């Protein structure tokens, strides 16, 4: 009888522990990866940390982190449009080839994505999380005082190094603190991305419209004194980044990621951080260091986790320190992303998706205006008012798209993969449809649809990718896919230089790339919906 009661009580307790969508079953969070897909000690410890975060729940710390991590999304979408918004007045003033400004920006974004993503796996999330906004703010403000185009392009490249690191680092930080039941909020964070575009458009509208030289053909002299709008705009946006940095660094205290610490063998610190987060939220955590140690006893020799012990056997000379630092930037964080056939397939498909989408967007933007003009499209009066009005409308449309993305990824029969596939295919469809526009309003209408679906697509893509990388190599994985996106983005203007801008072929190729990418998304082997990221 006692045994029967014990079994009944156990079954009852297990039923209580089941949570919505099976995020937690039998007190153990379900993983994205199957057994033995990654190091068994790391996987078992990550489960314990996931259970601890689920036990703490979504509290004050995570909601505050949702806000400060959102600053990175805002920055990521704000600064790429900044160069577009200031392009006309700076070309009028400096009389130089405008594409060099975009080139400097793209190079900086590429360097930033690679450097900060890998750096967050080497040095930790905390400093990388804070420094990206600081670098962006300092050099953007400095760019406002540029005396010539060389200085402006150079400073744009440097501020873009900071911008490029935002999403690879910030997505990892947020994902590693949020409980599995609320991982969908990583997708909802893209609402900050849409807000970044809206903010830039709203601030640029009065400044550039009222404090810029008139655009004339042929160009007339445009002295600095009559063209202060773009400088005011850079001062305002750079100042905003410095303000957001102050909030991140001095107002909100970011703890180092527990999973990062555990992956580095610093189990005691990982447990300490979990308890600090629990205390911050007014909760209690049952996680103990002994629980993590027991995992090592179960899998002896699988993972060297005593970092201090390793240090004792190290060469402590300056040369030894340099060698260890260089090794950190080697392949140690790349190989685990291809450790098994299924994981390698997943990583390869993610790189492919980011690369193709990185090419398709700028390829379309490079050709569509010229193509439509040659087909007799009437774009209205071309006034500054119409230009910025349309930009604001497109920015506003992106906000509900980002919110819808957070809902769509939790639909059982769609999940991350299905939602990403549908939104990407629809983006390609709206892109094709935009080529039929013959008026400004028609083009605006099609672009509203394309803005809506593309914001859904990017919101899901930005969230799905870090979910499919193990924590200890997540920064590197994010860096690889973001770098692929930037490299292929640089290819678009090169294609524009050598192809006929009046040709419709590149536009149709761009639409086809989006549609193909939508089907590729369905081939991803892992579906993170309802499962905890490791």
CATH superfamily membership, which one? MFS general substrate transporter like domains
- Number of helices, where a helix is a run of at least 4 consecutive DSSP H or I residues: 21
Any idea of the CATH class?
Mainly Alpha
How would a textbook summarize the main sheet?
A: 2 strands, antiparallel
Basic shape: globular
Mean pLDDT: 81
For the record, the count of structural domains works out to 1
SSE class: mainly alpha
Count of beta strands: 2
**Considering DSSP H and I runs of 4 or more, what fraction of the residues is helical?**
over 70%
CATH architecture: Up-down Bundle
β-strand percent reads under 5%
Provide the spatial order of strands within the biggest beta sheet. Answer: 1-2
Poorly predicted regions: 1-28, 303-326
Order of helices and strands: HEEHHHHHHHHHHHHHHHHHHHH
Radius of gyration: 25 Å
The rounded distance between the terminal residues' Cα atoms is 41 Å
* CATH topology name: Growth Hormone, Chain: A
Family: Belongs to the major facilitator superfamily.
Main location: membrane
Protein name: Major facilitator superfamily (MFS) profile domain-containing protein
Membrane topology: Multi-pass membrane protein
Q: Can I get a quick summary?
A:
The protein is an all-alpha fold. It has helices at residues 2-17, 40-56, 60-94, 99-122, 125-143, 149-164, 166-175, 185-188, 190-210, 229-251, 258-263, 267-280, 289-298, 307-312, 318-328, 341-374, 384-408, 415-434, 440-467, 474-498, 505-521, and strands at 24-25, 28-29.
């Amino acid at each position: 009888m006692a045994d029967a009661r014990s079994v009944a009580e156990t079954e009852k307790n297990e039923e209580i522990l089941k949570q919505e969508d099976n995020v937690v079953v039998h007190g153990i969070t379900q993983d994205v990866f199957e057994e033995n897909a990654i190091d068994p000690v790391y996987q078992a410890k990550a489960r314990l940390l996931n259970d601890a975060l689920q036990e703490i729940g979504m509290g004050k710390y995570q909601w505050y982190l949702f806000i400060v991590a959102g600053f990175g999304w805002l920055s990521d979408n704000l600064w790429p449009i900044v160069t577009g918004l200031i392009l006309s007045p700076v070309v009028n003033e400096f009389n130089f080839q405008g594409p060099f400004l975009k080139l400097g920006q793209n190079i900086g974004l590429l360097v930033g994505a690679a450097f900060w993503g890998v750096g967050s796996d080497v040095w930790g999330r905390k400093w990388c999380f804070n420094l990206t906004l600081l670098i962006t703010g300092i050099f953007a403000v400095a760019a406002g005082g540029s005396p010539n185009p060389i200085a402006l392009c150079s400073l744009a490249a440097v501020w873009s190094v900071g911008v490029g690191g935002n999403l690879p680092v910030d997505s990892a930080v947020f994902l590693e603190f949020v409980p599995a039941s609320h991982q969908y909020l990583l997708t909802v964070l893209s609402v900050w991305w849409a807000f970044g575009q809206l903010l830039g458009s709203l601030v640029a509208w009065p400044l550039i419209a009222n404090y810029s030289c008139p655009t004339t053909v042929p160009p007339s002299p445009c002295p600095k004194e009559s063209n202060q709008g773009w400088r005011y705009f850079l001062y305002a946006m750079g100042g905003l980044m410095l303000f957001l940095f102050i909030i991140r660094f001095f107002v909100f205290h970011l703890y180092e990621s527990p999973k990062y610490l555990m992956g580095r063998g610093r189990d005691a610190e990982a447990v300490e951080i979990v308890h600090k987060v629990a205390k911050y939220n007014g909760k209690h955590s049952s996680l103990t260091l002994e629980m993590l140690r027991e995992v090592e006893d179960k899998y002896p020799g699988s993972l060297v986790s005593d970092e201090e012990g390793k240090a004792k056997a190290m060469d402590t000379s300056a040369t030894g320190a340099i060698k260890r630092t260089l090794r950190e930037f080697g392949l140690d964080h790349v190989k685990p992303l291809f450790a098994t056939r299924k994981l390698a397939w997943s990583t390869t498909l993610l790189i492919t998706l980011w690369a193709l989408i990185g090419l398709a967007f700028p390829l379309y933007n490079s050709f569509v205006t010229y193509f439509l003009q040659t087909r007799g499209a009437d774009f209205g009066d071309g006034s500054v008012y119409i230009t910025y009005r349309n930009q604001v409308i497109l920015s506003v449309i992106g906000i509900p798209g980002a919110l819808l993305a957070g809902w769509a990824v939790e639909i059982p029969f769609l999940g991350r993969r299905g939602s990403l596939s549908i939104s990407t295919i629809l983006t390609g469809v709206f892109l094709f449809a935009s080529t039929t526009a013959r008026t400004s309003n028609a083009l605006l209408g099609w672009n509203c649809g394309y803005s809506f679906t593309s914001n859904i697509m990017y919101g899901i893509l930005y969230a799905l990718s870090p979910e499919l990388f193990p924590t200890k190599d997540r920064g590197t994985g994010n860096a690889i896919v973001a770098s692929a996106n930037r490299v292929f983005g640089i290819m678009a203007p090169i294609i524009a230089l050598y192809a006929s801008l009046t040709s419709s072929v590149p536009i149709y190729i761009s639409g086809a790339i989006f549609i193909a990418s939508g089907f590729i998304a369905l081939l991803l082997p892992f579906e993170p919906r309802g499962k905890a990221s490791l």
